[in-house]
# Entry
Amino acid sequence: MSHLPTFADSADQGRLGLVWLKRLWSQWVVGHGARADAVAAWRATKVLLSGLNLGVEEVMRWCGSRASFEEFEDWVLECNGGAIDPLTVTRINAALTGAPPPPAIRERLDAIERLPDVLGPAELGQWHEQGWVVLPNAIDAAACAAAAQVVWDAQGMSPERPEEWGRFGPRQQCVFVQLFRHPALRVARESPRVHKAFAQLWGTADLWMTTDRVGFNPPERSGLQFQGPGIHWDVSLVQPIPLGIQGLLYLSDTTAEQGAFALVPGMHRTIGDWLDSVPSGEHPQHFAARTLTMTPIAGKAGDLVIWHHALPHGPTPNRSDQPRLVQYLKMFPADFGYQPEWL
Ligand SMILES: O=C(O)CCC(=O)C(=O)O
# Structure
């Protein structure tokens, strides 16, 4: 009989007054295990990390060092400039205990609900049919340039020195650059226009914004072969796949050949049948890589590509002479659907 380690109680609020934080820390330091409360734990993870401006990858790496909970709380504070807004604490605790958001937050959410739609009938029709849509001018050109500069700085490279682009940046993993917090990256995360787009697609403005990383996809001709990832899903393929919405903001004008983001349009509607067609013994991911063709989505700097997470997707090799720079972001409600069994 296997013995699962004992985790802290989700009601233990620690020094920061946050439910679930100690419970999750105690889980992360020993690694994940199958649990009866896996859905609640993953929802709490997403809400806490969003509310506390933390990236999933950096938290998992940090917890790998097995530091104490007190040290973890210190690091969380440091990531938030030394203090966490009490309203944020109240909103997180409310969301994770099934209570409504505090009135001051409700007012902000209502203001988003009242904004004019940013996705019109044509875009919503495309969302329904194809499972993806572009929000143009999600942030303005100056904000885009500032965010792009953050990516260049994280890579230790310059747009003027192409000879630098072919090496691996210090924070780079595939096309991802593990940088999560910078004032220039907050502009898109706090944009009412971006919030409204997600609110229209989710049917509620009561959403959480991820603190996601950025990306750099250099031209292959600069010397670095395309690093992937290849076509994939970031969600379990166990049917039915609950709604989940991902997003990528182009920080540079991006042609289809310039390592554009790509996806298989419409597959959110056909994935059940497609899964039935996967030969027995073959993993759907491998079958997808062997048989599906992705459509690259070109875009201007400032375009936010939004897609249903049931669409297989990925970056593509950059055959141009300019790198592709992006910021990843997504919004979700605290009670999002989640399938803990992974396929
Ligand atoms: O950077 C890209 O084009 C793809 C990003 C991606 O695959 C993801 O966010 O899961």
Summary: The chain has two domains: 21-96, 116-332. Residues 205 and 285 are 33 Å apart (CA to CA).
